[in-house]
Give the backbone structure.
Amino acid sequence: MDEMEQGAWRVVETLERAGYEAYLVGGCVRDKLIQRPLCDYDITTSARPDDVLRLFEQTVPTGIRHGTVSVLLGGFRYEVTTFRTDGEYEDGRRPQEVVFVRSLTEDLARRDYTINAMALGRDGVLHDPFGGRSDLQRQVVRAVGEPAVRFAEDALRMLRGIRFAAQLRFEIEDRTLQAIGYESQSLRLISRERVRDEWHKMLLAAPDLAIPLLQQTDTLRHILSRPQTFDLQVEDPWGWGIDPWRLAGDWAARAPQDLALRYALLFTAVRMDEARIEKTLAELRLSTRLKQEVRTTLLFAGENPNLWQDAQWRQQLFRHGDEGVWRGCCLFAAMHEPDNQRHWQEQAERRKSEQPLWSLQDLAATGDDLIAAGLPAGPLVGRTLQRLAQWVLLDPSRNDRDRLIRQALQWREEQNL
């Protein structure tokens, strides 16, 4: 038992000693049963939020309106939520009210999938009123109760179900899968940020499994298409007889877990045009940095690093940076040499270590040096430094202060600047 889990049980014990019921619940129980690495622990309890605040020294009222208090203990954060049921949902996203209850079973009944509707007590007893353990053994994702009702409460649960199936490599139970297809239009009610976050988890975990499920349930258009009338059907642009979206999932799954890289592989596989790419990046509310990383990686889609000479490697690193070139090499490997991923990552790292020039600041001569040597101050100095950088990238031994100044003056004399 690791330190974080020990802390979770201490929280449970503290609540029990005060006279309340308390259990580990949800994803941590699921992952513990299948021996999957755990990264967080949720606790459900009969204690009201005010009781939790009183019992622990360090707390944060994270979602106190919905009964959740974060307990800080031993450097870790534990979400402690009062047993509750949800009232009517106002917009397919959030309940109008929550009702605190004293029954663990009532609390588990409001959860999305059976594999997340289990609770584990400090005595080792598993509380599993909806057959979650059996579904784990059968490797099935099944909604708690009536699937359509669960999805009407919060439409994002549909994407969560697809994510669980992809991450765990499970099947989605037939009724649940059909309900996702029937109810997929309600995803339009969900904020783009929430959709994006679920999509990113799928893209990083198992895109080769997630994308076919998103296609099958017609939920893909609610991730990568605005408006929803945009036709995501793509003719086979490669002539390989492979659905381009499946190809996108396969390519992305081969690559390292990097969002920009996997986005670039997806867009390349389906040959999405630049306007659609920009629209998709904007609609998903991606950060400015991530958008730029995707654009840079796409520049490598037609490149073959096998053909780069030493000077071309230096040019690429100077222009796109080490991360850009690393992604470019990984993109090439995922598309054309999947068995050589490690080779291309090592090649990118080696070239990075040998790179002599990353910016104009790495030149041995400065703009002030050129002005002192006789070049007039102004835009000409900047242009000359850029040209000197390209000259050095062709032959790094040229990066000598006096030699750079002589070359700049020679170009000036030849009126070649």
In short: Residues 139-222 form a domain with the Hydrophobic Seed Protein fold (CATH 1.10.110.30). DSSP finds 20 helices and eleven strands in the chain.
